[in-house]
């Protein structure tokens, strides 16, 4: 991903997706917990939602964007680990899938971050 324009497009898309997920987790954590087949995860899911909303705000409104992509990449591993833990505690597959998706997204975040940093956007 050497194109700054492509990295900008990815940053915008990531910001919008992160905002949607963050809003869902922050506003309806109990519903989100049920959707992934877990219990007793309301407060942590709400907190993850608030973090996502803060990162989305930065990605969509602040410059340079590379800092916000880096923040998202840094927030992803503990979030993925938490989802994997939820899967283990609840014998549910969906949290493991979420953990894998988050882990994969981290790679994209880091490539976009590098490209944005190189172009100082």
Which stretches of 5+ consecutive residues score pLDDT under 50? none
- Main sheet record: none
Q: State the helix count.
A: 5
* Percent range of helical residues: over 70%
- Radius of gyration computed on alpha carbons: 15 Å
Number of strands: 0
What is the element string, with H for helices and E for strands? Answer: HHHHH
Counting copies of identical and different chains, the oligomeric state is single chain
| Relative strand content | under 5%
- On the 0 to 100 scale, the average pLDDT is 95
Shape: elongated
Look at the helices and sheets and give the structural class. mainly alpha
Give the distance, in angstroms, between the N- and C-terminal Cα atoms: 14 Å
Keywords: Membrane, Transmembrane, Transmembrane helix
Transmembrane segments: 42-60
Give a description of the structure.
The structure is a single chain. Helix content is 85%, strand content 0%. The protein has helices at residues 4-27, 29-35, 42-61, 65-90, 94-119. Helix 1 packs antiparallel against helix 5 (94-119) and helix 3 (42-61) runs antiparallel to helix 4. The two termini are 14 Å apart. The model has no long low-confidence stretch (mean pLDDT 95). The chain crosses the membrane at residues 42-60. Keywords: Membrane, Transmembrane, Transmembrane helix.
């Amino acid at each position: 991903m050497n194109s700054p324009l492509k990295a900008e497009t990815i940053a915008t898309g990531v910001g919008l997706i992160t905002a949607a997920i963050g809003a869902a987790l922050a506003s309806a954590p109990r519903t989100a917990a049920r959707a992934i087949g877990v219990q007793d995860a309301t407060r942590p899911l709400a907190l993850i939602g608030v973090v996502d909303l803060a990162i989305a705000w930065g990605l969509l409104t602040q410059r340079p964007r590379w800092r916000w992509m880096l923040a998202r990449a840094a927030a992803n591993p503990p979030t993925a680990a938490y989802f994997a833990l939820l899967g283990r505690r609840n014998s549910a597959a969906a949290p493991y899938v979420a953990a894998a998706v988050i882990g994969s997204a981290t790679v994209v975040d880091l490539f976009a971050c590098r490209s944005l940093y190189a172009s100082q956007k």
